[in-house]
């Protein structure tokens, strides 16, 4: 299947490392927590303009892989809640069909489903998606919202609390990631598990 021939398009960038005369394929994690680059603003967070998407992908260490054969095609789900209200993850982060642009990490719609479509088997992390989206993310805040606003950030992966910086979460198949901003001191529980559509099963 080619990237660009599928309704979901993208691929990844691998690092080739020459070791003792052999070639090893390294895992690219350009979106490690200390490299997230995004705007410090409040929601709603719109999708970047079409003209800006290649640069946002490049900032995340990603390139255009439209039309390349896929070696990897997995899906994760992301939900964001602020004070009990859901925040929409926009469609076409890292993607635009009209200009034939597709980063290995992207969205197609507002379901929260994140597509990882790569010509190589690699690991991408949540921080790279936020860099593409142009939204700041660290261990205590999303965009401009955090402790200074009286919010605490709690992260869940598969319904269990994730103790580290969410920007470093690797995106695996059917992973269910939830970022919950709630008033500091409020008891927080994981949102209900995402109900995957039949076409992804």
What does this structure look like?
The protein is mostly beta strands. 7% of the residues lie in helices and 27% in strands. The chain contains 2 helices and 11 strands. It has helices at 53-59, 126-133, and strands at 15-19, 22-26, 72-82, 85-87, 95-96, 101-102, 105-106, 113-118, 151-157, 160-161, 175-183. Strands 3, 4, 7, 8, 9, 10 and 11 form a 7-stranded mixed β-sheet that branches. The chain has a two-stranded antiparallel ribbon with strand order 1-2. The chain is globular and about 50 Å long.
Strand segment count: 11
Which whole number gives the mean pLDDT?
86
For the sheet with most strands, the description reads: 7 strands, mixed
Tell me the number of helical segments per DSSP (H or I, 4 or more residues long). 2
Fraction in helix: under 10%
Distance between the amino and carboxyl termini: 18 Å
Structural class: mainly beta
Taking all Cα atoms into account, the compactness measure Rg is: 17 Å
What is the N-to-C order of secondary-structure elements (H for helix, E for strand)?
Answer: EEHEEEEEEHEEE
Strand percentage lies at 25-35%
Shape: globular
């Amino acid at each position: 299947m080619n990237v660009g021939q599928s309704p979901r398009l993208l691929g990844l960038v691998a690092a080739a490392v020459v070791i003792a005369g052999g070639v090893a394929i390294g895992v690219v994690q350009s979106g490690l927590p200390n490299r997230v680059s995004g705007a410090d603003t409040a929601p709603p967070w719109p999708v970047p303009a079409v003209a800006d998407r290649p640069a946002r992908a490049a900032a995340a260490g990603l390139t255009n892989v439209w039309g390349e054969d896929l070696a990897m095609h997995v899906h994760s789900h992301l939900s964001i809640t602020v004070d009990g209200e859901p925040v929409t993850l926009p469609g076409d982060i890292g993607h635009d069909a009209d200009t034939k642009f597709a980063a290995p990490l992207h969205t197609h719609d507002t379901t929260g489903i994140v597509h990882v479509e790569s010509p190589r088997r690699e690991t991408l992390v949540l921080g790279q998606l936020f860099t593409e989206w142009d939204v700041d993310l660290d261990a205590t805040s999303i965009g401009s919202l955090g402790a200074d606003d009286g919010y605490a950030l709690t992260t869940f992966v598969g319904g269990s609390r994730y103790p580290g910086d969410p920007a470093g979460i690797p995106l695996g198949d059917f992973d269910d990631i939830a970022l919950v901003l709630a008033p500091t001191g409020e008891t927080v529980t994981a949102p209900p598990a995402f109900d995957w559509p039949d076409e992804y099963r």
